[in-house]
Design a protein that fits this description.
The chain is of the alpha+beta class and 320 residues long. The chain is 31% helix and 26% strand. It contains eleven helices and twelve strands. The two termini are 24 Å apart.
Length: 320
Amino acid sequence: MGITCNYLVAPAILLNTPGLTREEFAEKLKEVHHSMDDIDLSKPWNYVSKYEEEDLRRGLYSVAMVLGLEITKKFKEFSKVKKRGLEGLIFPPYLRFEKNSFKVVVHKGNKILKEVKTEVEEDVREGDFVYSPPFCDCHYGLIKKVLKKYEYKDDIFPDLKTTISEVILLPFFKVEEEIIYKTEEELWKDWPQFHPDFMFDWNKEKGFFHYGGKLNVLWKKIGNKYYIDEKTFKEMLYVKRNWGSRFTYTDLKITEIAIKYKAWQLLYRNGFRHLEEFFKDFPQAKKEYEKAIWDWYSSAINKDKTVKEFLHWRLLCRVS
């Protein structure tokens, strides 16, 4: 028995509708609703929770995420922290996604506090910056002077050694300004650095789908359109059950069926535990799923046969 999983939403979309451009892919992702809410069988299968997750509904940003695209060199350069002497750091602007808007947070300066003597569990030098230094109640600290260093050995794990630095530290808080944009176009006009073309390398032609980590589902790009890579199905023959980020073909198929029938509650927490109730309401979906089980099982036990031998075996099974 497979499980529905929001990790598989992106590849399930391409399984159902192969050959999507990135813009079409983004729109398809926006149509799907998933949530960490528990399934509620008193509500219809297409019930949308007000606490639904938004991570797949961010347009091209979501497409870049699920494809595991790399950050461009120019965006990495834009995102670098810049030092400004003893006054602290200049942090780059960063983008936050709100439910119906975009928020750019701009670092305007630092509020410098009185220097303190403290210890940090790092091997630091004068001029280094540390995040959330101990006993300082501040965002950051600048190391003005290193007084001494020593090694700390754990009593339980003696091989685990930590360098402790006693320092004179200048604590400071970040002063930030938040700018709200209602549309992508408004955002990109003021901040072209946050355009997906500036942020991500779209030249990648193949790779693994990602969702909190690399999945065992591959994608490929032909021209400007995206597909599931056929190698996925061969790799899935060796997966006996879902484990971590490794999924079976039946997991992928039942997620695709949930999306096809707009049964969003199957993508809620514990939704996969109620497939039988879903199949009672949608008997055609059960037939599709049973065919997927047969396709996966028959392929798995014949994975070392030639195509001709495999088709002959399938034919014999149907006749018998």
